[in-house]
């Protein structure tokens, strides 16, 4: 059998120290710790002298509190990192409705803007979670980039159904805005043109059905919305395209996050392939919450065997007496008398600890295996690991610990 | 067990939500297996196009059609009933809706081609939600020969962060359609979802973030007037350690000498070094257990029935699902 592939090490410090890195996008499926990782990377970069803004989409209050803020909103707020580093840290949370409203207000005359803002379809679109959040995250990223106030923007992507939504949603919105249905709704047929006649037939079928299914008022609202929005469509698409191109420039680095679990790594695989397909620069994979046992030399099989030996009182050469192997200066006499007298298993604590260790080793082996599968499929993708933290992050200290774990070499291997 | 009612007697639509990564689909599938006893026919629905059910039951991707995927967990020596599964997508649900209520099969296809489905999911997700929840409530209410076709329907619903919006269809749609057929449909769907026939279950692990989301989600649904179901604590790791040892270890008091003696007695080499490593692992574990106890108490304060599911360490397969189904039944969830 070939030895397992060893991935190149993902040097996150080199990435954040490189002044040419202007945007870091953290992506991955839900529940892998994207938001926390984005904050930890932002903090570490600020401590190493960068002027950083972290853009999160996760309304987790805990994270805001960890950064010493009572809440996060749509405006970048300064975070006190506790010592002068020459850098700075700001944090903000995307308010997609607010961001969307601002675009409308900026791009339509006041009357039209008011008309759009009041339309029920606009309200549904701008406050929904499907697609708009991704689109607005891209929009906000573009805005932050244009202000040039920060030399590093760290973005955390929305908790999508799949990691790919983040790339697809803006285009889906664009496709929708360019879609045939929209053209049917907005363009009154011009007589005498054959294809328009065909479209017209389609149009009455559609409007007929929609009226039947949705009711006339809904259709009217829809048409009003589309008409009012029409003038802005060009602008929207252009901006989406600009941000998209920005993501393809060398100053952008994508970091894919995954927990060492099959589902998360499958998503990570898709994402890596997708980024390559879109010619977007992938910096590396962060394997988050990796379990590293402290005593790796004792395998789970031997650990279980030892636990069984203790539980069954089948101790080699008699309980507690000189074992077959004697390495450490364990005080002999200490165990002897006690073992014979105690009612329960003499070494219940040791047996329990051995069982615990066996489980941890099994988990570690499993995690290693799924990570190796990923590397076998993507041998050139650099990988960094973050050890599982015993507790969630409550303060800057916790974020720092993650950044430190990220920057240090993996404990095993 | 057989004499006792389950905790969810009278509930026919089980909505299962949870934070991403907590095993929501697995729990939904295990619950469906547990509900499908003594010839009871159960439908398991997924609504997010992930094909997670097909993966769990090791079958080819589910079409937009109710397909038998397995046999439920038997009870009292009698075999289980049939378990069906369905992957709902908004497109199929829209065609279904048009056909069922208006006899418009071909129009549905035309609308799909013209991008109406893109329209529904992009500009008005409320419409897409009402189509998907509508399919689940339709299956729940469907009758044949004077009795319900399914004894229970289990829905693998969107994650906790989106569940309120997803289930609150009536309100979501009423912003768009004040009157009219869609509004009427939404109202019908809402009546089923708000009825005592429906319960919303939460899946969580014993970690801070999923628990916070569970508590927030439950508060949200309560304020929306929806009936809360159980809390399914997933991936619980049991250990064989004495409580006193754990408590001491959590406070940093670990008898390394005692561990080393045991290791030596078991015939392991280099007992002292090994004991030091194991002591670190024990300390981490003990602090984690203490944290989990705190979290269990937080969940208990929510006042809903709680079930604990063991971690299946070798990856979930069909055998693991049946094991979880049994655990759920023994705890009264089904």
Give an account of the 3D structure.
The complex is a heterodimer of chains A (413) and B (334). Chain A is of the alpha/beta class. Chain A has two domains: 12-166 and 242-294 and 374-407, 3-Layer(aba) Sandwich (Rossmann fold), CATH 3.40.50; 300-368, no CATH class. Chain A is 54% helix and 11% strand. Chain A has an eight-stranded mixed sheet, with helices on both faces. In chain A, a hairpin with an 8-residue loop joins strand 3 (77-79) and strand 4. In chain A, helix 10 crosses helix 11 (216-247). The longest helix of chain A has 32 residues, at 216-247. Chain A is elongated. With 334 residues, chain B is α/β, with parallel strands linked by helices. Chain B has two domains: 13-237 and 311-330, P-loop containing nucleotide triphosphate hydrolases (Rossmann fold); 243-286, no CATH class. In chain B, 51% of the residues lie in helices and 16% in strands. Chain B contains 14 helices and ten strands. Chain B has helices at 24-35, 52-56, 90-102, 105-114, 116-123, 125-141, 160-167, 169-174, 181-194, 208-223, 243-250, 256-265, 271-300, 318-330, and strands at residues 13-18, 42-46, 67-71, 82-87, 143-144, 147-148, 152-156, 198-204, 228-236, 306-310. In chain B, the strands form two sheets. Chain B has an eight-stranded mixed sheet, sandwiched between helices. In chain B, strands 5-6 form a two-stranded antiparallel ribbon. In chain B, helix 3 packs across helix 6, helix 11 (243-250) crosses helix 13 (271-300) and helix 12 packs across helix 13 (271-300). The longest helix of chain B is centred in the C-terminal third of the chain and has 30 residues, at 271-300. In chain B, 54% of the residues are buried. The mean pLDDT of chain B is 90. The interface between A and B is large, with 91 and 86 residues.
């Amino acid at each position: 059998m070939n030895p397992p592939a060893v991935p190149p090490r993902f040097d996150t410090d080199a990435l954040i120290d490189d002044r040419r890195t202007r945007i870091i996008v953290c992506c991955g499926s839900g529940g892998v710790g994207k938001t926390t990782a984005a904050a930890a990377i932002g903090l570490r970069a600020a401590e190493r002298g960068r002027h950083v803004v972290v853009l999160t989409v996760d309304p987790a209050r805990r994270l805001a509190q960890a950064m010493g803020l009572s809440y996060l909103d749509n405006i970048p707020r300064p975070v006190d990192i506790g010592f002068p580093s020459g850098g700075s840290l700001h944090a903000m949370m995307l308010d997609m409705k607010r961001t969307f409203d601002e675009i409308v207000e900026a791009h339509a005359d006041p009357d039209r803007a008011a008309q759009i803002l009041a339309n029920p379809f606009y309200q549904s679109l701008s406050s929904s979670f499907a697609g708009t959040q991704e689109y607005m995250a891209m929009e906000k990223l573009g805005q932050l980039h244009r202000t040039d106030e920060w030399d590093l923007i760290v973005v955390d992507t929305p908790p999508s159904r799949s990691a790919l939504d983040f790339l697809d949603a803006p285009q889906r919105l664009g496709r929708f805005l360019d879609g045939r249905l929209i053209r049917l709704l907005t363009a009154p047929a011009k007589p005498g043109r054959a294809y328009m006649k065909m479209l017209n037939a389609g149009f009455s079928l559609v409007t007929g059905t929609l009226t039947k299914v949705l009711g006339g008022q809904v259709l009217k609202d829809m048409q009003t919305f589309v008409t009012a929005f029409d003038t802005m469509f060009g602008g929207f698409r252009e901006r989406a395209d600009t941000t998209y191109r920005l993501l393809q420039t060398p100053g952008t680095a994508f970091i894919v996050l995954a927990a060492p679990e099959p589902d998360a790594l499958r998503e990570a695989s898709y994402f890596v392939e997708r980024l390559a397909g879109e010619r977007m620069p992938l910096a590396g994979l962060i394997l988050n919450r990796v379990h590293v046992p402290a005593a790796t030399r004792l395998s789970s099989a031997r650990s279980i065997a030892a636990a069984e030996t203790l539980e069954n009182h089948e101790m080699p050469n008699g309980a507690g007496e000189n074992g077959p192997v004697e390495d450490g200066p364990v005080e002999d006499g200490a165990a002897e008398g006690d073992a014979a007298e105690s009612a329960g298993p003499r070494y219940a604590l040791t047996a329990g600890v051995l069982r615990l260790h066996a489980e941890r080793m099994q988990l570690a082996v499993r995690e290693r295996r799924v990570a190796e599968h990923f590397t076998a499929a993507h041998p050139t993708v650099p990988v960094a690991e973050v050890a599982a933290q015993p507790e969630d992050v409550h303060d800057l200290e916790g974020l720092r610990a993650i950044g430190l774990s990220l920057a240090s070499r993996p404990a095993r291997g | 067990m057989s004499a006792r009612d389950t905790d969810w007697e009278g509930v026919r639509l089980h909505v299962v939500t949870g934070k991403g990564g907590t095993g929501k689909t697995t729990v939904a599938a295990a619950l469906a297996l547990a509900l499908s006893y003594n010839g009871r026919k159960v439908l398991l629905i997924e609504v997010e196009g992930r094909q997670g059910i097909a993966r769990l039951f090791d079958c080819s991707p589910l079409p937009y059609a109710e397909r038998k995927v397995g046999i439920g967990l038997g009870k009292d020596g009698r075999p289980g009933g049939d378990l069906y599964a369905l992957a709902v997508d908004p497109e199929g649900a829209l065609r279904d809706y048009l056909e069922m209520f208006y006899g418009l099969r071909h129009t549905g296809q035309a609308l799909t081609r013209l991008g109406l489905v893109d329209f529904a999911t992009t500009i008005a997700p409320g419409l897409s939600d009402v189509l998907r929840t509508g399919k689940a409530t339709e299956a729940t209410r469907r009758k044949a020969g004077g009795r319900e076709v399914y004894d229970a329907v289990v829905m693998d619903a969107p994650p906790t962060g989106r569940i309120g919006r997803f289930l609150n269809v009536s309100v979501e749609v009423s912003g768009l359609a004040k009157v009219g057929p869609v509004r009427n449909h939404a109202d019908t769907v809402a009546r089923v979802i708000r009825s005592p026939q429906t319960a919303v279950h939460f899946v969580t692990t014993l970690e801070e973030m999923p628990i916070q989301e569970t508590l927030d989600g439950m508060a949200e649904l309560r304020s929306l007037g929806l009936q809360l179901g159980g809390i399914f604590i997933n991936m619980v790791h049991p250990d064989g350690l004495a409580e006193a040892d754990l408590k001491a270890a959590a406070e940093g008091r670990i008898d390394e000498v005692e561990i080393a003696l045991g290791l030596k007695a078991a015939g392991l080499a280099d007992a002292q070094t090994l004991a030091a490593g194991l002591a670190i692992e024990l300390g981490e574990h003990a602090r984690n257990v203490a944290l989990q106890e705190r979290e269990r108490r937080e969940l208990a304060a929510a006042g809903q029935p709680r079930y604990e599911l063991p971690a299946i360490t070798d990856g979930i397969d069909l055998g693991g699902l049946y094991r979880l189904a049994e655990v759920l039944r023994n705890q009264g969830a089904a």
